[in-house]
Amino acid sequence: MTTNAGPSLRRQFAIQRRVIWAMVMRETITMYGREGLGVLWIVAEPAMFVLGVMVLFSFMEANYVNNISPAEYLAVSYPTLLFWRNGTSKTTKAIDVNRALLHHQPIRPIDVVYARIILTFASGAAAFFVLYPVFTFLGITRLPYDWFDFAMGYLLVIWFSFAFVMIMSSLSELSESIERTSHIILYLMLPVTGVFFPLYVVPQPYREWLMYFPLIDAVEFFHAGYFGPRMPTYYNLGYTVVVLIGMTLFGYALAELAIKRVKIMGGA
């Protein structure tokens, strides 16, 4: 008597982990190449964005409370948009353009998306964790007022970014219109992300309306961890977590539809 049992769940997880890691390495070489700075562009590219924006806005008159300068505010806030903005840009139509890879059995369509998300999120996080200690050493930023809230706020931003990128990536596979308008959507989001101005400067009732957007709640919580009592912050954590759970489930449901469409089109 023979058995035809497949690999255990643990072994399947190990296989997919190796597949995703191999794809991350492949995407790293594809995006950043081997010449010049090579893989160091993973940090250098987003870091240049952060520094460029800080320099531009440093010419503004400081008008935040408690002498918080635009440079300090942006050094903390601007890196948060690297996750959802760069993640969306890098994963749009990712499955479709990598369709040839799907003929290799171990590679699942969702692995292509995971690999690009991991790479872009690692790039954004690396830029922040390299620049932040330097800014603190130079006196531009300070140590967080509350390390736990600081870390949890950062993780909430990453969670929002993951769910948002999954939704946008899947929609781009289902509709060509999303692929062509995604950059417009990302730019239109900028004023309502809490990156360029804190929520306390927004008058009511608009402030309350903005708090229905989970990203600005997450950024405000992140601000609360960093600035503490130096800056008034507004957020609703319970609401934000519930919405993020819904967004994550919606993102996976859309990803299933997108993968089925790719298979119907003959991709796998």
From TrEMBL:
<keyword id="KW-0762">Sugar transport</keyword>
<dbReference type="GO" id="GO:0015774">
    <property type="term" value="P:polysaccharide transport"/>
</dbReference>
<comment type="similarity">
    <text>Belongs to the ABC-2 integral membrane protein family.</text>
</comment>
<dbReference type="InterPro" id="IPR000412">
    <property type="entry name" value="ABC_2_transport"/>
</dbReference>
<feature type="domain" description="ABC-2 type transporter transmembrane">
    <location>
        <begin position="20"/>
        <end position="213"/>
    </location>
</feature>
<keyword id="KW-0812">Transmembrane</keyword>
<feature type="transmembrane region" description="Helical">
    <location>
        <begin position="113"/>
        <end position="135"/>
    </location>
</feature>
<keyword id="KW-1003">Cell membrane</keyword>
<keyword id="KW-0625">Polysaccharide transport</keyword>
<feature type="transmembrane region" description="Helical">
    <location>
        <begin position="39"/>
        <end position="60"/>
    </location>
</feature>
<feature type="transmembrane region" description="Helical">
    <location>
        <begin position="147"/>
        <end position="172"/>
    </location>
</feature>
<feature type="transmembrane region" description="Helical">
    <location>
        <begin position="234"/>
        <end position="255"/>
    </location>
</feature>
<keyword id="KW-0813">Transport</keyword>
<protein>
    <submittedName>
        <fullName>Sugar ABC transporter permease</fullName>
    </submittedName>
</protein>
<dbReference type="InterPro" id="IPR013525">
    <property type="entry name" value="ABC2_TM"/>
</dbReference>
<dbReference type="Pfam" id="PF01061">
    <property type="entry name" value="ABC2_membrane"/>
</dbReference>
<dbReference type="GO" id="GO:0140359">
    <property type="term" value="F:ABC-type transporter activity"/>
</dbReference>
<feature type="transmembrane region" description="Helical">
    <location>
        <begin position="184"/>
        <end position="202"/>
    </location>
</feature>
<dbReference type="GO" id="GO:0015920">
    <property type="term" value="P:lipopolysaccharide transport"/>
</dbReference>
<keyword id="KW-1133">Transmembrane helix</keyword>
<dbReference type="GO" id="GO:0043190">
    <property type="term" value="C:ATP-binding cassette (ABC) transporter complex"/>
</dbReference>
<keyword id="KW-0472">Membrane</keyword>
